[in-house]
Amino acid sequence: MPHITIEAASISKEKKEKLIRTLTKTASEITEIPETSFTVLIKESPIENWGIGGQPLEQIIMNQK
After folding, report:
1. Whole-angstrom Cα distance, residue 26 to residue 10?
2. What pTM was estimated for this model as a whole?
3. How do residues 9-25 score in pLDDT, each as one tens digit?
4. Is 36 within 8 Å of 2 (Cβ atoms)?
C-alpha cells in the first residue's frame, strides 16, 4: 500500500482535504496504482518550529509583509 507523507505548518481543514485528493490522484496517475491503495499523512508543525537559513520562518514572513 503506497503511503504519502507531507510535513507543513498548520493548514486549514479545506486545504488538507484538497492536498489529500490532489496528491492521491496525481500519484495514482503517475504510478498506475489505484487511488484506493494510497494513504496520506499530513504532519503539522506550528510555524514557530520552522527555520530557513538560520532564521525563524515566522520572522521571515513578518519581514516580507
Report:
1. 23
2. 0.78
3. 889 999 999 999 999 99
4. no
CA distance 6 to 11: 12
3-state secondary structure the chain: CCEEEEEECCCCHHHHHHHHHHHHHHHHHHHCCCHHHCEEEEEECCHHHCEECCEEHHHHHHHHC
The amino acid present at 17, given as its one-letter code, is E
Residue 4 contacts residue 24 (beta carbons within 8 Å) = yes
Note the Cα 34 to chain centre separation in Å.
21
pLDDT tens digits along 2-12: 999 999 988 99
Q: Under 8 Å CB-to-CB from 2, ≥6 apart: which residues? A: 27, 31, 33, 37, 38, 39
